[in-house]
TrEMBL record:
Designated name of the protein: UPF0303 protein GCM10025864_08250
Domain of life according to the entry: Bacteria
Family classification: Belongs to the UPF0303 family.
Pfam families hit by this protein: HbpS-like (PF03928)
Matches recorded under HAMAP family: UPF0303 (MF_00761)
Gene3D superfamilies: Haem-degrading domain
InterPro entries (alphabetical): PduO/GlcC-like, PduO/GlcC-like_sf, YBR137W-like
């Protein structure tokens, strides 16, 4: 069994299956284009979903270094703002979701921090940030959520991106 600081123990077979599922999500969730208006609509969709479920989260959408959408729902704090910034930096640097970046290192028997020696107050590989990938262009930004467990943050982002892409 392997563990990390943010998850309950996971049998190695489950860990491998989870990593494979996360990699499939990244192949699946690709935009044709990604405009400022798209960022706004995606952010609003995530906020609406969070409100409908009574979730206290921060939602952040970026293209490159530019923050295009940010909302902090009731029950969140500046601490959540810091988490979305740190998660967005991981996506920008590694081009994968923070949950995948984290679990890949767990599968290797180490933490993300041990593997990359990046400052913890600047980079957080806790789940909840996902790359905005545009067909033919690659990763152009990120969508991040903070306020729930890393798995729940990740699932909220993925569900929102799926709904957005299905409606496009």
């Amino acid at each position: 069994m392997t563990t990390d600081a943010h998850a309950t123990p996971m049998p190695d077979a489950d860990l491998s299956a989870t990593i494979a599922a996360l990699q499939e999500q990244e192949r699946e969730l690709v935009f044709r284009t990604f405009t400022n208006d798209d960022a706004w609509r995606l952010g609003c969709l995530l906020v609406e979903r969070a409100r409908a479920e009574g979730l206290a989260v921060v939602v952040d959408v970026r293209r490159g270094e530019q923050q295009l959408f940010h909302a902090a729902l009731e029950g969140t704090s500046a601490h959540n703002d810091s988490w979305v910034q740190r998660k967005a930096r991981v996506v920008a640097r590694f081009g994968v979701s923070t949950y995948l970046a984290n679990l890949r290192e767990v599968a290797r028997g180490r933490t993300f921090g041990q593997a990359h020696e990046l400052p913890f107050l600047e980079y957080a590989a806790a789940g909840g940030a996902f790359p905005v990938r545009v067909a033919g262009a690659g990763v152009v930004g990120s969508v991040a959520v903070s306020g729930l467990t890393q798995h729940e943050d990740h699932e909220l982002v993925v569900a929102g991106m799926r709904a957005f892409l299905a409606a496009a």
